[in-house]
Amino acid sequence: MNTMLSEVFSETEFEAIRSYYRDPDVRARINEFCGGKVFSCEYMIGFGEQLRRRGYRKLLILAEQAELPELMENGLDIFRSVWDKKATLAVWDVEYFNLDTWSDLYRHQLDYFEMMEPTYTAIENVLRQYAIPHINDCTSSGYHFISEIPFSSPVHKRLEGIGHLEKSLREKYALVPGGDNKRKRPVPDRDGKAYSGIGRLIEFLCHRVIRQARGESPLEITISDAATGRSPRGREGMSLDITQYGDPLYMRDIRTSFSTHQKHKVHVKKVGLENGRALPVQATVPRNELSFFELFEIRKDLERAAEYAAQNRTAIPDAGEGWERVLEDYLASPLYSFHREFDAVEQEPPSRWPETYWKLNLDSLPPCAAKALRNAKQELIIPTNLQNICRIFFALGWHPKHIAGLIRSYYKRDLGWYTDWTKYDPQTRANFWARVYCGLLIDGLDSLKDFNCASQAEKGICPHPGCGYDLDRLRDAVYRRL
Q1: Tell me, what's the pLDDT at 49?
Q2: Which segments of the chain have a pLDDT < 70?
Q3: Are 481 and 448 in contact (CB under 8 A)?
Q4: Which positions ≥6 away from 456 have C-beta within 8 Å?
Q5: For position 458, what pLDDT does the model report?
Q6: To 5 degrees, how large is the angle CA 353–CA 356–CA 360?
Q7: What is the spatial distance between Cα 69 and Cα 46, in angstroms, rounded to a whole number?
Q8: Whether 74 contacts 262, CB under 8 Å
Q9: Is the dihedral of CA 456, 461, 465, 471 positive or negative?
Q10: Is 197 exposed, middle or buried (0-12, 13-18, 19+ CB in 10 A)?
Q11: Which of 309, 315, 302, 308 has its CA nearest to residue 75?
Q12: Which residues pair with 90 in a beta bridge?
């Protein structure tokens, strides 16, 4: 047993989790979130320290409905697949991020949630404007807003109609590889297209939230954790994290309502030993109409969380009518026009990469961009670098789809990637990054105020201060294209 982790996570705490999960109301709420008496989610996942103690190399384990009691008895956090047998889930993950440390977030949670409040309020206002019923679960770093559109809803066909599947992704969806418990059956076109479609609608709402909350939020609001500079607290921000929609449907999962949350007990190096020892395991519960102060009194006390479970229902609500209203506004938006045009452009085929994307003279680029391409395995997966690549190549006149093609061509190189590209899809991932960050430019939401050499240094992506490359000139070029 790892000594440090045994000091952080006591047997008393493990028993408290087991006792919490034995509560019938807690079990009922988790069952509801997973689809009811017969779960509609494709799979479940357990995560936690107990797996390390049992000799697992990875701290997560895939499971089916019948194995849920065992996950609970082992004191694990509980997740369900986003892939569902009856509906398309709309999952909006919003959280504080800090690229330098998690320590203060866990030490002073109420202070950080107060900084998140303007973004939370803006999201609730937007969802209320569209009359979208939802669950608003609180985690230790932010919130999950969850609703669904049943396959039987007339809205679902329209949702499928705005989705887009790359040929490579469609091929993965048709594949059922042996030994992959996340893909026990092919992903139907209906499921894949609607998942893509709901991702685009949430991207559209991200733009709304940025517009509404930007002047009120003390944190810079970004899509994913792209750093905009450095504050006294580090490289931080508020992430509207829609990155799951750059991945195949079968790969993504979400923590259930009334699951425990023990990340700070597992990732001790990130939060600090003192925090790991001092902070109790908390519960992931819906905020409903509570203040975040009231909410945290419940989250940090598993007995109170169990009592709270008796007062709530967690069946994911049918929000088809509300999402149809979002869809109507999206279809009339500049973002939709950009998405359609983006989808229509063809990238260079792999046979032409040596004479197109790979023929690029990296020495002609700003060093911050060249470094990310030269060290693609480490750096071309980092949102801050990807946003920088999109900005620079957009300024150089590249079409966003070819920016995606460049990124994809590097993902396809044999660089010993930590990402398993047989499960994920390089083209879908690259298209996602270019579409999202160029979409912010085209919709006028990327102010480019951090697109300068001083900010590049603050963000930690400038390899050669004083290199002589003038990013102001590129910023002006972006403005000319818009």
Answers
A1: 83
A2: 1-7
A3: no
A4: 368, 388, 462, 471
A5: 93
A6: 110
A7: 11
A8: no
A9: negative
A10: buried
A11: 302
A12: 147
Q: What is the DSSP letter of 41?
A: B
The continuous run of DSSP H or E covering 144 comes out as: strand 142-150
Instruction: Output the pLDDT for position 6.
Output: 54
Query: For residue 79, what are its two tokens?
Result: 């997740």
In whole angstroms, how far apart are CA 112 and each of 16, 118, 280, 285?
27, 12, 18, 18
Radius of gyration of the chain (CA): 22
Residue 317 is given by DSSP the state P
3-state SS, residue 54: coil
Tally Cβ neighbours within 10 Å of residue 455: 18
Distance CA 133, CA 151 (A): 17
The pLDDT, as a whole number, for residue 320 is 98
Q: Burial, 397: exposed, middle or buried (Cβ in 10 Å; 0-12, 13-18, 19+)?
A: exposed
Q: By C-alpha distance, which of 34, 26, 40, 136 is closest to 87?
A: 40
**pTM of the predicted protein model:** 0.96
Residue-wise DSSP of 414-469: -S--SS-TTTS-HHHHHHHHHHHHHHHHHTT----TT-SHHHHHHHT--SSTT---
How far is the CA of 293 from the CAs of 103, 104, 112, 255, 313, in angstroms?
20, 17, 12, 22, 21
Q: How far apart are the first and last CA of the chain?
A: 58
Total Cβ atoms within 10 A of residue 180:
13
pLDDT score at 447 = 94
Residues 6+ positions from 236 with CB-CB distance below 8 Å: 96, 97, 98, 99, 100, 219, 227
Q: Please give the biggest Cα pair distance in the chain.
A: 65
Rounded CA separation 413/109 (Å): 41
Give Cα 202 distance to the centre of its chain.
12
Determine the Cα–Cα distance for residues 388 and 36; give it in Å rounded to an integer: 44
Following DSSP, what letter does each residue of 377-414 receive, concatenated?
HHHTT-HHHHHHHHHHHHHTT--HHHHHHHHHHHHTS-
